[in-house]
Amino acid sequence: MTSASPEPVDPAGLRVSDTEREQVQQFLSRAMVAGQITPAEYSDRSAAALAARVRGDLVGLLDDLPGASLHVERSVDVLDLRAGVGGAISRRGYWRVPPVVRVHSWVGGVTLDFTGAECTAPVIAVELATGLCSPVLVLPEGATADVDDLLISAGKVRDDTTHRRERGTPHLAIRGRHSLGDVVLRHPRKPRWRPGRKKTTVTREGDGAPGRRTRS
Questions:
Q1: For strand 89-91 and strand 110-113, is the pairing parallel, antiparallel, or unpaired?
Q2: What pLDDT is stored for residue 26 in this prediction?
Q3: Would the pLDDT of 172 be above 50?
Q4: What is the rounded distance in angstroms from the CA atom of residue 57 to the CA atom of residue 63?
Q5: CB 150 within 8 A of CB 178
Q6: Calpha distance 133→108 (Å, rounded)
Q7: Which ranges constitute the DSSP H helices of 34-190?
Q8: Which among 174, 178, 90, 91 has a CA at the least distance from the CA of 132?
Q9: Quick one: average pLDDT of 107-128?
């Protein structure tokens, strides 16, 4: 009696990892920068990559992009920010922002200021895995953001940014999960006038009369 040989496994049916999904998103980001796909196509394909379950779902997103192929061994440009319980995450001034930024924080504060940052892609995916805090994302003037793929519970999004018809540069695609707190989007705060610094003026009472100083 001969045993039946196992049927070959179709690579397209194999489950994919987060690493492979991120690789595809990086290829898509580069293709958009090169003008090979539009921002709308990038958004649609990026969402499909995030939802992909098997390898065939990802490969189909790259078929029409020259030189784009899926390789598990390729490095992925991802910034992984993690804080212990009660710890804080803060990025201000100059820092390099890759196409994907992951934020993991519970209880501790989160502040990501993109005002002086170097964004390596026009669309930045910010993945939140946060709770019991209020993450603050500071967008430079002209930048935009969306929270279409963000699941938030016991909290809300406080969006104080300027809304535009077209996407700005950079555009932050905020997604993931957040609970027990607000997610704050705002532009840089303008300097405030400080009380106590009074302006001194000189008034003339007439020809040859000494000036009189007043404070206002």
A1: parallel
A2: 82
A3: yes
A4: 11
A5: yes
A6: 6
A7: 39-51, 55-59
A8: 178
A9: 93
CA distance 150 to 174: 6
Whether pTM > 0.90 for this model: the answer is no
Helix (H) or strand (E) holding 212: strand 212-215
Three-class DSSP category at 33? helix
For residue 150, pLDDT beyond 90: yes
- Residue carrying structure tokens 């993690």: 82
Q: Is 32 left (phi over 0), alpha (psi -120 to 50) or beta?
A: alpha
Sequence-distant (6+) residues with CB within 8 A of 183 are 128, 134, 135, 137, 147, 150, 152, 155, 156, 157, 158, 174
> Sign of dihedral through CA atoms 143, 148, 152, 155?
positive
pLDDT at position 2 is 45
| Alpha-helical runs (H) found in the chain | 18-33, 39-51, 55-59
4: confidence class by pLDDT, cuts 50, 70, 90: very low
Q: What is the pLDDT of residue 193?
A: 62
